[in-house]
Automatic annotation (TrEMBL):
Residues 28-198 form the Metallo-beta-lactamase domain. The keyword Transcription does not apply. It comes from the Bacteria. CDD domains: AHL_lactonase_MBL-fold. Belongs to the metallo-beta-lactamase superfamily. It comes from Streptomyces litmocidini. Pfam families: Lactamase_B. This is N-acyl homoserine lactonase family protein.
Amino acid sequence: METITRLDLGHFTRPAEEWDGPHARVEPVLGYLVRHAGVRLLFDTGMGTGSPETDAHYRPVRHPLPVGPDDVDLVVNCHLHFDHIGGNRLFPTTPVLVQRKELAAARAGGYTIDSLLPGVRYEELDGEHEIAPGALIVPTPGHTEGHQSLVLDHGDRITVLAGQAYDFAHEFGSPYLPWLDRLGELADGRPARVLFAHDRDLWEGVLPPPR
């Protein structure tokens, strides 16, 4: 059976200066438990245990992951900022798929909470990677150079777990980013549903064909 279950992993408060807004904004932290083509995967793992400096800056409220190592075969991180990888260490023997350039940037320091990186079985990818029939990781750089999304092909439609490729559903597709052409190619005129890491709303429509 194919399912996508959204997980509420808490929220944090982003200061106004970090998004050029008039005030601070509260953002949900969302993960997704996916069962597709016989594979069980977890897309992002929440904030986990932070650092005093990070907690003072973002005032996070954390919700525990409702799944454990026995429940998933793979973990996929859209990128390696602290609010997406906090639970990775709860899966010490589970492969965690990440783009090679993203892991290199994180390990260089000053990128995430460094204490969240060790003790994880990272498997480095260079570009697209098929997890299972109809489950494809696609690079979606922008928020970070190594950002990636997961495309699930259901036959009559596709679902994209877009992570933080865009912050909000209403922003999806604007500004134009070149990888949108690849999503349009994969959709091939079929309806698409796009889910996000920091927005409970979703985008639904037909992706334009490649430019």
